[in-house]
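To: structure subgroup
Subject: Chain for Friday's discussion

All,

I'm putting the inputs and outputs inline so they're searchable in the archive.
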Amino acid sequence: MKFIKFFSLFIALLFVSEVTAQEFKLGKVSVAELEEKVHPKDSSATAAILYRKGTARIEYDETEGFVVVTEVETRIKIYKKEGYDWANQKVWYRNENDFREKVAFSDAVTYNLVGGKIEKTKLKSDGVFDEVVDKYRAQKKITMPNVKEGTVIEFRYVLRCPSDRIIREWDFQSSVPVNYSEFTTYIPEYYVFNPRQKGYIFPKVTVEKNLKTITFTSKERNGWMNSSTSFSTDKLDYTEVKTIYVAKDFPAMKEEAFVNNIDNYTSSIQHELSMTKFPRSEYKMYSVDWNAVVKTIYDYKDFGAELNKTGYFEEDLKKKLEGKNTTDEKIVAVLDHVKGSVKWNDYVGYYAENGVKKAYKEKTGNTADINLMLTAMLRYAGLTANPVLVSTRSNGISLFPNRTAFNYVIAAVETPEGNILLDASDKFSTPGVLPLRALNWYGRLIRKDGTSEEVDLMPKKTSNDIVFMNFSVDPEGKVTGKTRRQCTDYNAMITRANISGLKEEEYLEKLENSNNKIEISEYSKTNEKDILLPIIETYSFTGSNLCEVIGGKIYVSPMLFFANDKNPFKQEVREYPVDFGFPFMDKYNITLQIPEGFTAETVPVPVVFNMEDNLGSFKFNIAANDNLLQITIQHQINAAIVTTEQYEMLKEYYKGMIAKETEKIVLKRI
C-alpha cells in the first residue's frame, strides 16, 4: 500500500544503545544561558527548549490500584519578542464524570540577567488557570511573569491518570529547536506496551530491568464486645522495565506549504497497550491488529447497537423515499433528510454522544450521532451501507492498530463502481465529497460481521474552478471587465463555505480586497443552495492597480488578479509530502480588448508543461484576433498527495507556471 510504503520511511523498530544521561536540574539556570543572544545552531529561532525531561510511571496505589503518573520538567530560553508565547504553557487533561485526570504545576520560575546577576520571579497563583476545552477535556494553563528577550523560564508539572493503560505521547521535536529531551517509562512486568516511533530522526534508547516490591497493608477486626484490630502486610515482588529515550540537538519543525498536520512528521514516541498478564489471571490481549480494534469499537453499546435502531425515523424516511428507485436517488434523499433533521454540535467522535434517537428528537448531535444514524437509514433504504472510522486531519494519521487512532466516523455505500463516502455533519457535503477535516489518507470500514478493510479517503475526481473573463484597458491603464466563475465538488464546497455566514456586502469586500482592491458591481450567484450543481458567481469589476503605464506603454498581466505570483515551494529539500487535499483543475478563458490606438508589441509565447507520472500539467496559449487577445490557461494537479520524491519536479513546475502567469503583455501606441 502506498500509505505503508511511505510511512515505512519514518516508522522504525526501537533500537538499544548505551546513553549517558546528561544532568539537568530545575533551579540551576546559568549566567551563560541567560547571556546567550541567539541559538547556536538556528539563528532564526525565537526560542528553544534547553531541556525537557519526563517520566511516565505505572505505580501501585492502595486505594486505586495501578495508575499512571507523569512528571515533566522543562527549561525554555526566549530569544526574541516573537517567542514570548512560550511563556504561556498548557497541559490538557480528561475531565469526564467517570474519568478525571489531575494536573498540578510547581517550581515555575522566570529568570533574567539584571546588572550581571540572576533575578528570579516565581509564578504566583493568579498566573495559573483552569479552562474547559469541551465536555470531555480541560486544560491547566500558566502565564509566566516578567518575560523579556533573553529570559529563561522553567517549570514542572505532574499529571495523574486513574487508568493504568494510558501513557501520553512524548514529542522530541517542537516548532523551536530542542537541545535535550529525555523520556523515561517505568512499566511493571504485568503490562506489554508496543512503543512506536514516528518522525525522521530518532532518539537513542536504553532499557533496564529492576526488581520492585509492592507492600499491601490489610486490617482485620476480631471479637464482638471487646473487639480489637490487627494489621498484616503482604509483599509482592515484580520486575519493572525502565526505558530511557534521549534526544539531543533536534532541529525545529518548520512549517511548509500544503502540510495537513505537521504532528504527523514530528519525532515522537507512542505507547499502545497490547497485553496484560497479571498473576493468577488469564492473559488479556488489546488491539493486536485492526480487526481486533474495530471489533472492540463495534461492540461498544454506543456504536454498533445504535446502528440497529430504526423505529424513530421509519415513518419520516418512508415519505422521503417515495418514488426514489435508483441507488443515487436513495443516497441523496437519505443524506438530505439527515442533514435537514440533525445539526452538528461541533463535537467529533466515533461513539454516539447523545444516542441516535435522542439526537433525532433534539435535532442535534456529534459526528457519530449523525453518521451512525445516516448509516442506519441507508441500510433501511435497502443499500449496503457501513460505518467508516476516520482520523481527522487535526488528529493525525493512524499509523498502527489502536482504538485512539480514530476520532471520527462517516458512512460508506458499497456499489459495483466502489464505495460512495458520505458525511451528513457538513451542510455542504455531497455524495463522494467529504468535509476537508475528514480527508486524511485512509479510514477503516467495518461490516456487520466484524470484518474490516482499509478505505482510501483521498478524492480521485478532479474539482474544477473555471473562469471566463472579458476585460478592456483604457490608455490610462484602468481596467474594466466581467467575470463568470464556476466551481465544482471540493472547490464548490469551499466557495459555499466562504459565502455562508457572511452578508453579501462583507463577502464582496473580502473578495475586492483579496483581488488587488478591485471594485465589484452587478454581483450574482447561482446554485448557492442546490449543492449537487456547480456554484456560479458572476460580477463586473473595475481596477486602477491592475496594470502599469510606463513611457506611454501599457504592461498588463493577462490573468490580472487570478495569477499565482508566489511559489509556495521554496525549500531546497522537502521533508513532508505535499497535501493538496484533492485533485483540481483551474482553467481560465480570457479575452482582452486592446484600447483603440494601441497594438500588442509583446505577448507571452504559448507553452505546455507536463510532469511525469501524469502528476499534472500547465497549458498557456494566446492568439490575436483584430483588437482582441484570446488567452486560455489551464493548471491541473491530478493527485491529492505528492510524495517527497516528486517534490523537486513539482517545485520546478510551479516555478515555470508562475513565471508564465506573471509575464506581461506590452501594448504600445500605433
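Points worth raising on Friday:
The chain is about 15% helix and 40% strand.
The CA atoms of residues 610 and 617 lie 4 Å apart.

D.
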